[in-house]
Amino acid sequence: MCNLKTSLVGKAEKYREDCIDFMRDLIRIPGVSCKEKEVAERIVKEMKHLKYDKVWIDDYGNVIGQIGHGPVRIVFDSHIDTVDIGNRDSWSYDPYLGKLEDGYIYGRGASDNHNGTVPQVYGAALFRDLGEQLDKVTIFVVGSVQEEDCDGLGLQYALEHSIKNVDFVCMGEATDLKVYRGHRGRMEINVVAKGISCHGSAPERGKNAIYRMSKLINEIEKLNTTLQDDLFLGKGTCAVTHISCETPSLCAVPDLCRIHIDRRLTHGEDKDLAVKQIENLPSFDRENMKVEILRYNAPSHTGKVLETEKYFPTWVLQEEHPLVQAGKRSAEQALGRAPEIGRWVFSTNGVFSMGRLKIPTIGFGPATEEDAHSTRDRVKVDDLITALAFYAKLPIEVSR
Length: 400
Ligand SMILES: [Zn+2]
Known about the structure:
Blueprint: H1 2-13, H2 16-28, H3 37-49, E1 54-57, E2 63-68, E3 72-79, E4 100-101, E5 104-106, H4 114-129, E6 137-144, H5 153-162, E7 168-171, E8 179-180, E9 182-183, E10 185-194, H6 209-226, E11 237-246, E12 256-265, H7 271-279, E13 289-293, E14 295-296, E15 308-309, E16 311-312, E17 315-316, H8 322-335, E18 341-342, H9 350-353, E19 361-363, E20 378-380, H10 381-398
Parallel strand pairs: 3-6, 3-7, 7-19, 8-18
Antiparallel strand pairs: 1-2, 2-6, 4-5, 5-20, 9-17, 10-12, 10-13, 10-16, 11-12, 14-15
Helix pairs in contact: 1-8, 1-10, 2-4, 4-10, 8-10
Bound molecules: zinc ion.
Residues 79, 112-113, 147, 173 line the site of zinc ion (ZN).
C-alpha cells in the first residue's frame, strides 16, 4: 500500500505549486451566492490552461469542464460561492488575501468549498496524464453556483440541462479526507396564525394572533424531543428560529403572527411527515393557521431564475454500494491507509443529486466542517494534494 501511495501521491505532487496558486487566487475573488461570475471565469481559465477537452459556463452560471469521452459518466462537484465574511474586525487576517502559513492556506472559502474545486480540477487532469481509460469514463468537473443560499439548485440545473445521464457524483465538500455517504435533510417552514384586531384597551373584543401562536410554540418545543433518531444520521430536530407579527398599532391586538422553523430531517422523515406533525399538534387551529414551505427565487449571476421550494431531502448511500467501495479504494491509495466512512453534519448539493434524482453520490474533500463559515477558514496544503490523488483514482475505480 505504501508503494502505491508513494507512486500516486508522487505524481500528484507535480501540481503542488499550481494548486497553491490556484487556491490563493480563488480566495482573492469574493464570490457570495449569485455573484460568482468572476470566480467561474477564473476556473474556466485554469481548465483551459490544463487543456480540458471542453470547458463552458452553462445558462445558470455553473462552470463545467470535461475530460474523457467514455460511457461511465461521473461528476466531480464543488460549489463556487462562499458565505460572506461577517464582521471584518473578527478576522485576525485579511479573509481575501489567501494567506499561506505553516502549511495551511487561509481565507474565505478555503474550507468551503474551494478546498474541493482545486483538487477536483487538478485530479481530473492527473487522471488524463496517467494515460487512463479516456474511452471508458467521462469526467465532468462542475463548479456549481448558489449552494450556500439553496443547496442543490446549481447542481440541479447542471444535471438536468447541461450534462444529463450522469451515473455517479462525488462532492468535494469538507470531509477531512474521509469518505462520506449522506446527511440529514432540512426544510424551512413558516407557520402563520391569523387573529382579529381590536383596540388594545379592550383586548377581549378581538383574538390575539400572538397568543394563538404561543401555545403552538410550546408544543413545537416538545415535538423536538420526540422526533425520530437514526444510528448513522442522528436525530431529526425542529427549532423555532424567528417570530414576527403584524398589528395596526402598538395599541392594537395583532391580527397575524408568523414563526419560522428550522427542521432537520433524519432517515425516514420527509416533507409530508414534517408538515403533518405540526398540523397534528393539539393547538394547531386549521381554520386560523397554515403551514408554508418557503420558496427560493434569487436570480443567478447570469440573471436566470429557478424557483424552488426550500425542501432539501435526506439522503444516504449504503456502505456496500459500488461507489462507496470505489471511494474507499481510491482513498486507500491516496492516504496509504483505510479511510474512515462517515456523514456530514451540514447539508450539501447531495440533497439534489441523491436526495431527488437518486444518482449515487459520495463526498471526499480536504479541510474540516468545523472550519467552514468560521474565521479559521483554512485548508492544509498536503491534504489538497492527497485529495488530488483521490480524484485522479476515483474514475478508474468506478469504471472497473
Ligand atoms: Zn459547502
